[in-house]
Amino acid sequence: MGKGGKSHEEASIGEEENMAAWLVGLNTLKIQPFKLPPLGPRDVRVRMKAVGICGSDVHFLKTLRLADFVVKEPMVIGHECAGIIEEVGGEVKNLVPGDRVALEPGISCWRCDLCKEGRYNLCPEMKFFATPPVHGSLANQVVHPADLCFKLPDNVSLEEGAMCEPLSVGVHACRRANIGPGKNVLVMGAGPIGLVTMLAARAFGAPRIVVVDVDDNRLSVAKDLGADGVVKVSTNMQDVPEEVERICKVMGAGVDVSFDCAGFNKTMSTALSATRAGGKVCLVGMGHSEMTVPLTPAAAREVDIIGIFRYKNTWPLCLEFLRSGKIDVKPLITHRYGFSQKEVEEAFETSARGGNAIKVMFNL
C-alpha cells in the first residue's frame, strides 16, 4: 500500500487513532482508522493541515476508476496536501518537528532508466498518493519520504502549500512548452488546471494570454486572475472555424503555444487550428482517451504536439513563485471544510457539482 499506511483493519486499539477518509465503495466515503507504517530512517511523520480535492479524487469516488487505475479495495483518498512535521527519521537532516511542509505525492523507484534520466514522473513503479493501490493523504497524519517534503517559506500558508500540487501541473507544462517572454499563450479550459496553467504561463513571462471556456463564470474568474482576453465557445465541433477566428482576433497576434487543459476532441481541434505555423500545442487535460483531430493540417504547418504527465522537480519553483508573489493561488480556494464525516461528504458533493467551486480545501 505504499508509504501512506496500512489497512484500517490493522489499526491498533489503545493508541491514539489516526483517522482518514476512505473510499470504500461507489460514491461512499467513510472516516475510519488508518494505521501508519513504522517511520523509516529517511521518512517523516506529518500531521496534515490542508488537503485539496482534485478532479481525480472525484472521478475515483464516482466511478472507482481513472484510466487504467481501478479501486479494488478500500483506499484513503487525497493527494494535494501540506502539514506540520511531527517526527523525523534518524537520517533526516533537513527537517525538524514543527516545520511546515508541502508534500510531493509521488514516490518513484530512483533505479529505472527514466528515473536516472531525471524523468522520474514517468517511473513505471511510481507510488502516488490515492492512486490504487496506494493510499492517499486525507488523514490526520501520514508517513512520507523526507526528500519529498518541502519546507514552506514563512509567508506561504499551509493552504498555499497544498496548492503546489495542482500548480505543479501548470509549471511542468510551461517548462515542457518552453514558455517565456515573447510567447503568446492560449489556454483551452478555465477549470482549476487551466487557471493554474494560466498563472504559471504569466510567471514564466508570457506577454499575452487568452483563455477559452464554455462557462461564463469560469471565464470571469480567468479575467479576474489576469487573462488578457477570454473567449466563450460552444461544445459544437461545427463552430471551430468561427471560434478560431475569434480567438486569433482577441489574441491580436499569433498563438505561439496552446495548452489544452480539457482534453476533448473539440478543444484539441481548436488548439491545433489556432496555433501559428511552427508553434506548439501541449496536451494537459485528459478528457478523452482517444481523439479525432485535424492532425495532418497541423503537421503541414509544423505544429509540435507535446504531452505532460504530472510533474517533476516543481515544488521549489512553485514555492518561490508563491513566496515572491509572482503567483497568487489564494483566489482559487473557493470552499473550505473541516474533517468530519458530514463535511467530507459535503465537500466532495460541492467539488463534483462544479458551479462556482474552483478548489475545495479541507482544513484539518
TrEMBL record:
GO molecular function: oxidoreductase activity, acting on the CH-OH group of donors, NAD or NADP as acceptor; zinc ion binding
Record has Oxidoreductase as a keyword: yes
Keywords of this entry: Metal-binding, NAD, Oxidoreductase, Zinc
Cofactors required: Zn(2+)
UniProt entry tagged with the keyword Nucleotide-binding: no
Residue ranges annotated for the Enoyl reductase (ER) domain, each copy included: 25-362
Annotated family: Belongs to the zinc-containing alcohol dehydrogenase family.
Protein name from the UniProt record: Sorbitol dehydrogenase isoform X1
Protein species of origin: Theobroma cacao
Organism taxonomic ancestry: Eukaryota, Viridiplantae, Streptophyta, Embryophyta, Tracheophyta
Gene from which this protein is expressed: LOC18605484
